[in-house]
Design brief:
The chain is α+β, with helices and mostly antiparallel strands. Among the domains are: about 80 residues; about 140 residues, Sandwich (Immunoglobulin-like), CATH 2.60.40; about 35 residues, no CATH class. Helix content is about 35%, strand content about 25%. The chain has seven helices and 13 strands. The strands form three sheets. A five-stranded antiparallel β-sheet has the order 2-3-8-5-6, covered by helices on one side. The chain has a four-stranded antiparallel β-sheet with strand order 1-9-4-7, with no helix packed on it. Strands 10-11-12-13 form a four-stranded antiparallel β-sheet, with no helix packed on it. Strand 12 and strand 13 form a beta hairpin.
Amino acid sequence: MSEEDMGAEIEDISPPVEDEVDAEQVANNTPEPQNAEQKIKALKEGIKKSRWNVFLLLGVSLVMFGFALFPLTMSVPYDELWGTSEKDLGYVWGPSSPGEDILDVPFELDVEIVRAPSVADNVTLEVYILKAKDCQDLSLSELEVIARGGNSHNNQFQSLESPLEGETYTFDFDLDMGHYCTKVQFVDSKGETLKQNTRLNVNGKLWPNQVVTGLPGIVFLGLSIFAFIGSQKKSAKLKSILEKRKVSEEQLILEAVSEEKIAQGPAGPPQSADGPSGPPQSSSGPSGPPQKEKKSGPPQSMVSQDTSTSKRSGPPPTSTTVEIDTHQQGTPDSLAEVEPTQETVISNESTFEPAGNGYFYRKMPDGTYEQVIYVQSADGTYIPYQQ
């Protein structure tokens, strides 16, 4: 064979262009397992990072709220010589602007009356918060007058008339950023300090970080919430991909199993009702000639026939005719036995498989079985079984 003929045959065997294009399209449309694995791996890493971000941001926000909510405590000593409780609060820092606003630093004073003045009437408990750099300066008296006026946010004043011994009273203030002093004392109706036989126990609480760390804590808490939502979205996406992948794998397994079953065909012939244990039992013929009955009268030829019976003309019927008449006068069962059995023509492409007890099943060329039971005749052909 020449090279040209071989080349022509190779060209004839090569698939058409359309089939190649369709195969390429199918390959492009089919998702690559490697890309799916990379996507799942990327989602898992993203979920892990998102969860770490949630814990980190939540931890930072908790630390911020810890600084914001826990106050700085202090004790204000009592001077029995002057009859007052005074303390330099130091510099109170915060982002508040001048005047009363939401950014002011909270300050709380708890005043316990250990011993009240012996004077029963017109006793007043006074509490001052004065904005001054030097708490020993003599000009604080002027700031006290301004505070009692109630028009200054930098110098604040609160009072309580007729305090009871053994009771504890709480005074709340909102401070701007700056240096402050506090002063607590008993005064009479004339404004003079009552210092004889008196004693106070004063404790203070200051929240300078409530705004400075509270606002960042709220921001970090919001970021942790957003990170948690992002992590949940990624987890839902990963779960959806894994479920689809599981369903596709199950479908592939089911399709492979069904294709394998179709390729293998049935495990055996179809289950049918149990047939008889042997060939049909034919009725046995007579064992000999019929027995003639002995009659007491004369022979039949000698008996006179009825005058009404018509006499036949012509020659007597032949033996063949007599036999046919005899068969016609037989029972219907004998007629059925006389009819010849028709044989069924079987295609050469089908095969017969033995089912036991002399019976056979016919297997068609496509692998299916015909729901008819066959028996093998004497000449080797297969005919349907008839009960």
